[in-house]
Automatic annotation (TrEMBL):
Gene Ontology CC annotations of this record: cytosol
MF (Gene Ontology): guanine phosphoribosyltransferase activity; hypoxanthine phosphoribosyltransferase activity; magnesium ion binding; nucleotide binding
Cofactor list: Mg(2+)
Designated name of the protein: Hypoxanthine phosphoribosyltransferase
Main subcellular location: cytoplasm
Enzyme type, top EC level: transferase
One family name in Pfam for this protein: Pribosyltran
NCBIfam families recorded: HGPRTase
Alphabetically ordered keywords of this record: Cytoplasm, Glycosyltransferase, Magnesium, Metal-binding, Nucleotide-binding, Purine salvage, Transferase
Purpose of the protein: Purine salvage pathway enzyme that catalyzes the transfer of the ribosyl-5-phosphate group from 5-phospho-alpha-D-ribose 1-diphosphate (PRPP) to the N9 position of the 6-oxopurines hypoxanthine and guanine to form the corresponding ribonucleotides IMP (inosine 5'-monophosphate) and GMP (guanosine 5'-monophosphate), with the release of PPi.
Length: 189
């Protein structure tokens, strides 16, 4: 585990253990193997949060696939979505006529997922679906479908396994809930 000597100071509790995450990846990998049997999907990881999930999930999928990354942002350095999505880095793979599977760490408001789905359809993808580790429908603003997900979560701010808090704590191997008072303290800085 990464040296996170103060991680417990910011966490209310652990939401998903390493074992829980492994089970989600295994279950989703089986579903995606069936979904993409006989196809060659392009897995597109949403940077930076999806890097761990994409790695672990793809190893559970028994399909021939390509992998690429896209970087879009609607958060900046805050904890609330701005609602304005910007493309920071596009994929380098030609997705025209391909089945694209967007890999997300968490789908919250749906702003970035809607942007990415529309973007890949405009690039000529045959299909665009999403696999997310976590789905937070209580915060959904845009009408988007998360086709595959590990678990639904409530309206807590979560961190770890790719999910960050002001750019930190992505490298902890589990997912925890950040204490509300810690969020408030950072917001007041």
């Amino acid at each position: 585990m990464a040296n996170q000597d103060n991680i417990q100071d910011i966490l209310e509790n652990t939401l998903f253990s390493e074992a829980d995450i492994h089970e989600m990846c295994t279950r989703l990998g089986k579903q995606l193997t069936e979904e993409y049997a006989g196809k060659e999907p392009v897995l597109v990881g949403a940077l930076t949060g999806a890097i761990y999930f994409m790695t672990d999930l793809s190893r559970q999928m028994d399909v021939k696939c390509k992998m690429d990354f896209i970087d879009v942002s609607s958060y900046g350095n805050g904890t609330e979505s701005s609602g304005k999505v910007k493309l920071v880095k596009d994929v380098s793979t030609d997705v025209k006529g391909k089945d694209v599977l967007i890999i997300e760490d968490i789908v919250d408001t749906g702003h970035t997922l809607k942007f990415m789905k529309d973007h890949f359809m405009e690039l000529g993808a045959r299909s665009v679906k999403c696999a997310a580790l976590l789905n937070k429908p209580s915060r959904r603003v845009d009408d988007v479908t998360v086709d595959f997900y590990g678990s639904e979560v409530g309206n807590q701010f979560v961190v770890g396994y790719g999910l960050d808090f002001y750019g930190m704590y992505r490298n902890i191997p589990f997912i925890g809930i950040v204490k509300p008072e810690v969020i408030q303290a950072y917001a007041n800085k």
